[in-house]
Automatic annotation (TrEMBL):
Source organism: Halochromatium glycolicum
Ranges for domain C-methyltransferase: 246-405
Location of the Methyltransferase putative zinc binding domain: 6-67
The name this protein goes by in its record: SAM-dependent methyltransferase
Gene Ontology molecular function terms on file: methyltransferase activity
Database matches in SUPFAM superfamilies: S-adenosyl-L-methionine-dependent methyltransferases
Keywords: Methyltransferase, Transferase
InterPro entries: Methyltransf_Zn-bd_dom_put, Methyltransf_Zn-bd_dom_put_sf, MeTrfase_14, SAM-dependent_MTases_sf
A single GO BP: methylation
Gene3D superfamilies: Methyltransferase, zinc-binding domain, NAD(P)-binding Rossmann-like Domain, Vaccinia Virus protein VP39
Keyword Methyltransferase: yes
Length: 410
């Protein structure tokens, strides 16, 4: 029995969503000169609150231990940049943004999104906790302050830089341990007639497609529409629209305004998605309990494939040294006995080793030299981009393998 309580409604957490045992911090890549040192492992046991149905991972590590020197740079992915560009174009038109508007983004990373508003002559400000990433954004000409976001930061930023006509938060809500303080900050920083948009992986899709490898320590929450509506409503913010996106295996983009306002009016898409979540059972703890066994199916299928490949003398490498890769590999116990190396585009990861399993990370060119029989796509959310970049492996008979939602060769 756990002593943890829900970080939104303070209900005691009693119901397991998934228990993946112990795992390392997924972004704590190991340097070559540290291979003889121990790594800390922490519980990966996510719970669901039976009152508000927020799925959450009790904090094992403080955010300032994970996000100060952060190795993830959004601009590495060309498909993510295109996603950001399209959003900026749509938002500028939809909300009539111009040179007198203020656009602010929380967890703005390296300026991957704000650069498109900046290029359109719209004043921007990024709020990014990782100092190393904020420094890169500033060097690119995207004004960025390095702070963790909450009500105190919102008050300081509003005083120094004004309220936000468009306030953005992409893939940050899941990273926040103190949700009430964070959402209170959103409320304070949003201009009276401003619009807030946030994107996050959709819990419904996570469960439907067995994407358990999205459960790791940097993600404190796993979010559905019904739960996010409850959290925002408690702080005076009302959702008026929602869009379903293909990013990160299936995400939501929510649109919100101050609850005191009646415009923009709510769209039919909100009612439709609420109904779908209810039919799936996202307000029934039994639905969550049924998910708990599904990661084992992936583990068994992937290990069966890798054992067969090794027995046949085939070579296998991985692609994508992302957080989800670290979760999957550690949960399945896959090390260099199965994967020769993992290729990744990010120079900040190359030359290091995957947390826990200690598989070396190489630049993509290593694949051309090794000519493996199989490339296991660990960043499955970018599979189309990766398969296009590496399409030439078919010249030597190489094949791609996807592990989620089940192991399949393609």
């Amino acid at each position: 029995m756990t002593n943890f309580r829900c970080k939104f409604c303070d209900t005691k957490l009693e119901h397991t969503f998934v228990d993946l045992g112990l795992g390392p911090l997924v972004d704590a890549y190991v340097d070559a000169d540290a291979l003889d040192r121990m790594e800390p492992f922490f519980p990966l046991h996510a719970y669901v609150c039976h009152q508000c149905f927020l799925v959450q991972l009790p904090p094992a590590v403080r955010p300032d231990e994970m996000f100060i020197d952060y190795p993830y740079f959004s601009s590495v992915s060309t498909s993510w940049l295109e996603h950001a560009r399209r959003y900026a174009d749509e938002a500028i038109k939809q909300f009539g943004l111009g040179s007198t508007s203020r656009v602010k983004e929380i967890a703005s990373n390296d300026g991957y999104l704000l650069q498109y508003f900046h290029a359109a002559g719209i004043p921007v400000l990024g709020i990014e906790p990782a100092a190393n990433v904020a420094e890169i954004a500033n060097a690119k000409g995207i004004p960025t302050v390095s702070r963790f976001f909450g009500l105190t930061t919102a008050e300081e930023v509003r005083t120094e830089h004004g309220a936000a006509d468009l306030l953005i938060g992409n893939n940050v809500l899941a990273h926040v341990p103190e949700r009430n303080d964070f959402i209170a900050g959103l409320k304070h920083l949003l201009a009276e007639d401003g619009v807030l948009t946030m994107e996050f992986p959709h819990l419904l899709r996570t469960m439907q497609e067995n994407q358990f490898d999205q459960v790791f320590h940097e993600h404190f929450s796993y979010l559905s529409l019904v739960t996010v509506e409850r959290m925002f409503s408690a702080h005076g913010l009302a959702l008026f629209d929602v869009a379903e996106l293909p990013t990160h295996g299936g995400s939501l983009r929510i649109y919100a305004r101050h609850a005191e306002r009646s415009e923009p009016a709510a769209t039919p898409r909100l009612d439709a998605l609420r109904a779908r979540e209810q039919r799936f059972g996202l307000e029934d703890v039994v639905t969550y309990a049924n998910f708990a066994e599904r990661p084992k199916q992936v583990k068994h299928g992937l290990l069966t494939f890798l054992l067969k490949a090794k027995h046949e003398g085939k070579s296998v490498v991985g692609y994508g040294a992302a957080g989800k890769a670290a979760v999957l590999l550690n949960f399945c116990g896959i090390g260099v006995d199965f994967l020769d190396f993992i290729a990744d585009l990010s120079p900040h990861k190359q030359g290091k080793y995957m947390p826990g399993v200690r598989i070396p990370i190489e630049p993509p060119e290593a694949i051309d030299k090794a000519k493996p029989d199989y490339v296991l796509i660990l960043s499955w959310n970018l599979k189309d981009e990766i398969m296009q970049q590496l399409s030439h492996i078919r010249d030597w008979g190489g094949q791609f393998v996807l592990p989620i939602p089940e192991t399949r060769i393609c």
